[in-house]
Write a structure and sequence with these properties.
Layout: E1 6-12, E2 17-23, E3 26-33, E4 44-53, E5 58-62, E6 69-72, E7 90-91, H1 107-110, E8 124-131, E9 140-142, E10 147-148, E11 152-156, E12 161-164, H2 170-183, E13 188-192, H3 201-222, E14 229-232, H4 237-245, E15 250-255, H5 258-271, E16 279-281, H6 288-291, H7 294-301, E17 305-307, E18 313-318, E19 322-328, H8 338-360, E20 364-369, H9 376-390, E21 397-399, E22 407-412, H10 419-423, H11 439-455, E23 462-466, H12 468-475, H13 481-489, E24 493-497, E25 506-510
Parallel strand pairs: 1-15, 12-13, 15-16, 19-20, 23-24
Antiparallel strand pairs: 1-2, 2-3, 4-5, 4-8, 4-14, 5-6, 7-12, 8-9, 10-11, 11-13, 17-18, 18-19, 20-22, 21-22, 23-25
Helix pairs in contact: 2-3, 8-9
């Protein structure tokens, strides 16, 4: 068993469910389930090909969402290929014989296994969502369909039995493979998950039967389905976390809701009774997340600046293209100890950086600017430390050695929206930039608009609408800034408050018609 103490904490309110995974009391993963944050990963759809772009080897699939889903040709399951799933670093190990049904391909299989180069507009295909939408990008999908259970992952039309890399004992691998192959119907593939190790045969077979039953329901629904239409809805966030994260290394699962506690207990009793004693119902007076100091860590995770105990601080900046992290020592290091102090600061910062990346669920390209190290052995030690910390991460991560500029480049699998997007809305005042136009700049821009309006030769009685704070700034004083502008340009208008406007925005309306004429005189 791992020496790290892992716990799952579930806090439920009437509006949302929050799930925290901790390691040695430190928050490392966080999930939110609410009506506004519906989980889509794992859902299976009958989609319709909207556009095929051979130049980027991809197709866009209509699933009925605002944006079409993105299907890269590498995520298609063409005839003869092996299905796989990104699940706990699983690998496909070949059997001595294949589970090939030897029959001709039916209509269902033709919609899953196809030559991507032959895709046509309006063609119906079965796809599964692998990544949530990020920004203006739609969901990402694959035609490599898989249905995860507690112990197994079922792969329709697969031919192999895969085994998790984290099952190390050869004898246990042989036992599990024998159990599955003895009853696995032809035409199906399976991946055996880590939690299946040392489990009773009946529990594994029950899981397989449930998964096959789910697939039969999908095929039955497909007979009358019309694209775009959902064929299968994966488990909720709470259920999927219990299914995927409740393993031997979890010391305790604490829930503060009697209803959810009862649901989880029924699930564990049916699938993993050995874990029943680790489930607890929290009845303390303090809120659960306060008692376990989760709330404080959550608030810190939303800050750009994060302090590292005994090693200065890190600054995390998110952009659309990448995430940039800067490491700062925070205290003066003596010249003769510079390399040692820099290395120690970098190593402690690296641990916190990996935790923050996991907690915030940062994905894509991540660049870390560490404090300069001049000795090769120091750079190598830092690189190995980063790799060791990322072994705790369930996402796929690639780390490159430190460059001569002291930069470490990281790529990390992105599946869902990061914590900042999931728990906050875009600021209506600054549109997410963190900055607004200065008051002087605002007045200058408004005066330029009035100059263009006067230059047009038109004459209307105008209404100026601005944010309440701007209104106070413009109308303050006996001889206010607004009055000065009116006399300067000989223009008639009155000012009104519009709560929905940002601090650096204004609107001009024609008083007589009520029409917004702002854009008529913009540059």
């Amino acid at each position: 068993m791992s020496s790290i103490k892992k716990e799952i904490l579930i806090n439920a309110t009437s509006k949302e469910i929050r799930i925290a995974l901790t390691e040695d009391a430190k928050l490392v993963e966080f999930f939110v389930e609410s009506p506004d944050q519906e989980r889509n990963v794992g859902d299976i759809y009958l989609g319709k090909v909207g556009k095929v772009m051979q130049g980027i080897r991809a197709a866009f699939i209509d699933l009925g969402f605002p944006q079409d889903a993105f299907l890269h040709f590498s995520d298609t399951n063409s005839f003869g290929s092996i299905s796989s799933i990104d699940d706990e670093d699983s690998e496909i190990e070949e059997d001595e014989e294949e589970n090939d049904n030897g029959t001709s391909y039916g209509s269902t299989e033709n919609k899953i296994r196809f030559n991507p180069n032959d895709l046509k507009r309006n063609q119906e295909v079965i796809v599964q969502i692998t990544k949530e939408p990020v920004g203006k990008k739609g969901v990402r999908v694959t035609s490599k369909i898989s249905i995860p259970g507690r112990y197994l992952v079922l792969i329709p039309f697969g031919k192999k039995v895969g085994m998790s890399k984290k099952i190390y004992q050869p004898r246990e691998k042989y036992r599990l493979r024998k159990i599955v192959r003895s009853v696995l119907p032809k035409g199906f593939g399976v991946i055996v998950r880590t939690v299946a190790a040392n489990q009773d045969e009946k529990l594994i077979l029950d899981d397989l039967n449930k998964l096959i039953s789910e697939w039969n329901k999908i095929e039955e629904k497909l007979k009358t389905a019309k694209a775009p239409e959902i064929l299968y809805k994966d488990a909720s966030t709470t259920s999927s976390v219990i299914r995927d994260l409740l393993k031997v290394d979890i010391s305790r699962l604490v829930v503060d809701s009697k209803k959810i506690h009862r649901e989880i207990k029924n699930y564990i009793d049916n699938t993993s009774p050995v874990y029943s004693e680790r489930l607890e119902l929290y009845t303390g007076n303090q809120p659960l997340f306060d008692a376990f100091k989760i709330e404080k860590q959550l608030n810190e995770s939303l800050n750009k600046k994060v302090w590292v105990k005994g090693a200065g601080y890190i600054v995390i900046e998110n952009t659309e293209a990448m995430t940039v992290i800067d490491v700062n020592s925070g205290k003066y290091a003596k010249e003769k100890e510079q390399e040692i102090n820099s290395l120690n600061t970098n190593i402690e910062s690296a641990k916190e950086i990996v935790r923050q990346i996991r907690l915030r669920d940062l994905g894509g390209i991540i660049v870390v600017d560490f404090i300069d190290l001049y000795e090769e052995k120091s750079r190598k030690k830092l690189y190995e430390e980063l790799r060791k910390e990322f072994r705790k991460d369930r996402a796929k991560v690639t780390v490159l050695p430190m460059s001569e500029f002291g930069l470490v480049q990281i790529t990390r699998q992105r599946i869902r929206q990061n914590i900042l997007t999931a728990t906050s809305d875009l600021c209506p005042m600054c549109a997410g930039t963190g900055h607004i136009q200065s008051r002087t700049g605002f007045l200058t821009e408004m005066e330029r608009w009035i100059q263009r309006y006067k230059g047009s030769g038109e004459s209307h009685t105008l209404v100026l609408k601005v944010n309440p704070f701007v209104y106070d700034y413009l109308t303050k004083g006996i001889f206010s800034r607004l009055t000065k502008i009116k006399f300067k340009y000989f223009v008639r208008f009155k000012a009104e408050i519009e709560n929905s406007l940002a601090l650096d925005d204004f609107k001009f309306y024609d008083l007589k018609t009520g029409k917004d004429i702002t854009t008529n005189y913009n540059e």
